[in-house]
């Protein structure tokens, strides 16, 4: 079962309250889902991944050029500290990181080696909701768009079902225009694509929490099983990655990427539940050991704070 399905199930169990911010987020999501430019970018990415799943070669920028572009973007605004990059194997690998901000995949891509070439599963609308993301990601490739409903959208749907008539029209718009992405065909398609990517020598970057955290040094548990299943099936290592400082962004802030020792498991075409559980527990322990439990947000002037915290949304 894919990471996406586990994430959907967990998000339904923890929905946000209905607030003006929730409603605004839902309206933005519906607008993105209706936007023809966004839909075309998503479809182009789907076509690329379908080519991979069928054993073909997708369209993508060179790893070196992609890293240079990402590094130029990130280093324009932030100072970056990288710890233990030598722990990244020069072989197909899954990078599994905690998730605090939409900057996280761009930050990691700016510092990891150009080879293997890392692919990133990500929320389809979030990937392409801004013009600069459409330009950069459309050119670079290397993304697997996941069609899914946001927790804010699920909250509106559930509230409408519970009798909030003023949300009925908004809930109907979600049902009509926002795909769930949870059908079995989509899930199998994602699984085939990931296995093909790893089999041909490329890597994956996965955020197993499945959603953004709100507190530095903490994990959103339980971790999704997909990351362990992919690693066990392909026989590739998982490298735990701790991201520190990305929850609140401002100009010239120091962001830290801390790589852990690779976690290696025996390859298994059909992993048993206990094998998946063991791998997930090892990953969870490794991530907890890498995170800074006593992180303190620096004091002082925080220039461009609002801009940078919203730039990567």
Automatic annotation (TrEMBL):
GO biological process: phosphatidic acid biosynthetic process
Molecular function as annotated in GO: 1-acylglycerol-3-phosphate O-acyltransferase activity
Keyword Cytoplasm in record: no
Protein's UniProt keywords contain Iron: no
Domain Phospholipid/glycerol acyltransferase: residue ranges: 93-246
Name of the protein this chain belongs to: 1-acyl-sn-glycerol-3-phosphate acyltransferase
Organism annotation: Allocoleopsis franciscana PCC 7113
Keyword terms of this UniProt record: Acyltransferase, Transferase
Recorded superkingdom: Bacteria
